[in-house]
Design goal:
The chain is α+β, with helices and mostly antiparallel strands. The chain has one domain (17-287): paralog of FGE (formylglycine-generating enzyme), CATH 3.90.1580.10. 21% of the residues lie in helices and 16% in strands. The protein is built from six helices and 13 strands. The protein has helices at residues 2-12, 63-72, 99-111, 158-166, 259-262, 289-307; strands at 18-23, 26-35, 54-57, 153-154, 167-168, 176-177, 189-190, 199-200, 230-236, 248-251, 268-270, 279-280, 284-285. The strands form four sheets. A five-stranded antiparallel β-sheet has the order 1-2-3-13-4. Strands 11-10-9-12 form a four-stranded mixed β-sheet. Strands 5-6 form a two-stranded antiparallel ribbon. Helix 1 (2-12) runs antiparallel to helix 6 (289-307).
Length: 308
C-alpha cells in the first residue's frame, strides 16, 4: 500500500519549470527556480536571511510580457523607448517600468490565474501608489502590509532577491554567500550577451541583452541578477514596508555600470513612481505544491527506513 502511494506521489511531484500566463495567442511562460535551504542566516551585509522556501524568476520580465499584459488588461503600462540602446525587441528586459507599474503587472499574474492580488490598489491610474493591507483584509500580514499573504506571485523582498543572487548552500567550504551573483567572489567577465558561466552584461555595453542571453547564472540558477538592468525590490530602502510612497530598493546594476556596483554590498533607491530606462524587474512566487509533496516523500522514506 505504501509503495503504491509513493508511486502516485512521485508522479504528482514532477516539477513544473515554467508557469503559463495569458490566453490564446497572447500567452507567455515564466521560468522559476526554487530557493530552498531556509536555515541560512544573513550575510555580513545584513541581508539574505529568508526562513521559508520560495521561487524566483530565472529571468527578468521582458517587453513582450508587458505587451501581453497591455493586450489583456488595463491600465496600460508604459516602457522606455530603447532604440538608442539596442532596440525594443520583445525579449529585451522591460525597462521604464515604475514600481507601481510592476506591482500592477504582478497583480495581473495573480488575478488571471485565480489567485489573490499581491498589492492593494484603490485607484485606477497606471502609476498610482498602492494602499496598505489592513487587519480586516483577508491575507493581511502585520509583518508586511505591502504584500497579501494569499498572493501567489509578488515582487521579491530585498532579502529574497539577495539570497537568490548571492547565496550557495553548496559553496566550497560550507554554505554561504558570494560577492557576485555569478557564483563567484571574483567580478564577472563583462560581455554584451551570452550564457557563459562567470559573465555579466555590464561595464560599458551598448544596452541590455535579451533576458535569456544576459550572462552566467547564480548558484541557484537565476540570470542577470548582476548587470543588464537594475531591478526593483518590494522593500522600502530604509525601513519596513509601512509607507506607500517611500523609496524602494534597487539591486543588480545595469549594462553600463562598473564591477563595484554589482557587488553584494551595493544597493540603491528611487521612488515608486519613477520610470528609468535602465530599471526593470523580476517576479518571485510561492513554492509549487510539488515541493510539499517531495517533502512528504522524504518523510515517508524516513519512516520506512526506521521500520526496517
Amino acid at each position: 500500500m505504501v509503495l503504491k502511494l509513493l508511486a502516485i506521489l512521485s508522479l504528482l511531484a514532477t516539477p513544473a519549470f515554467a508557469d503559463i500566463f495569458g490566453s490564446g495567442a497572447n500567452t507567455f511562460t515564466m521560468n522559476f527556480v526554487t530557493i530552498g535551504n531556509a536555515e541560512n542566516a544573513n550575510d555580513d551585509t545584513g541581508y539574505g536571511d529568508v526562513g521559508y522556501d520560495y521561487r524566483m524568476g530565472v529571468n527578468e520580465v521582458s517587453r513582450g510580457m508587458i505587451d501581453t499584459y497591455n493586450s489583456l488588461s488595463s491600465p496600460d503600462l508604459t516602457m522606455s523607448d530603447m532604440t538608442s540602446y539596442g532596440g525594443n525587441g520583445v525579449n529585451r528586459p522591460a525597462t521604464g517600468i515604475s514600481w507601481n507599474e510592476a506591482a500592477r503587472f504582478v497583480n495581473w499574474l495573480n488575478i488571471s490565474n485565480s489567485f489573490s492580488p499581491a498589492y492593494k490598489f484603490t485607484t485606477d491610474g497606471y502609476n498610482d501608489d498602492i494602499a496598505l493591507w489592513e487587519s480586516g483584509d483577508a491575507g493581511y500580514n502585520a509583518a508586511n502590509p505591502f504584500r497579501n499573504a494569499n498572493a501567489h506571485y509578488y515582487l521579491p523582498s530585498e532579502d529574497e532577491w539577495y539570497k537568490a543572487a548571492y547565496y550557495d548552500p553548496n559553496k566550497s567550504g560550507g554554505a554561504g554567500y558570494y560577492d557576485y551573483a555569478t557564483g563567484s567572489d571574483s567580478a564577472p567577465t563583462e560581455v554584451a550577451g551570452g550564457m557563459t558561466s562567470g559573465t555579466a552584461v555590464y561595464n560599458g555595453q551598448v544596452g541590455p541583452a535579451d533576458i535569456t542571453n544576459a550572462g552566467g547564472l547564480s548558484a541557484y540558477g537565476t540570470m542577470a541578477q548582476n548587470g543588464n538592468v537594475w531591478e526593483w525590490g518590494e522593500s522600502i530602502f530604509t525601513a519596513q514596508n509601512v509607507s506607500a510612497v517611500d523609496s524602494r530598493v534597487l539591486r543588480s546594476g545595469f549594462w553600463n555600470d562598473g564591477f563595484g556596483i554589482l557587488a553584494a554590498s551595493h544597493r540603491y533607491e528611487i521612488g515608486p513612481k519613477l520610470e528609468y530606462y535602465d530599471v526593470g524587474f523580476r517576479v518571485a512566487a510561492v513554492p509549487e505544491p510539488s515541493a510539499i509533496i517531495l517533502s512528504l516523500l522524504g518523510m515517508m522514506g524516513f519512516v520506512m527506513r526506521r521500520r526496517r
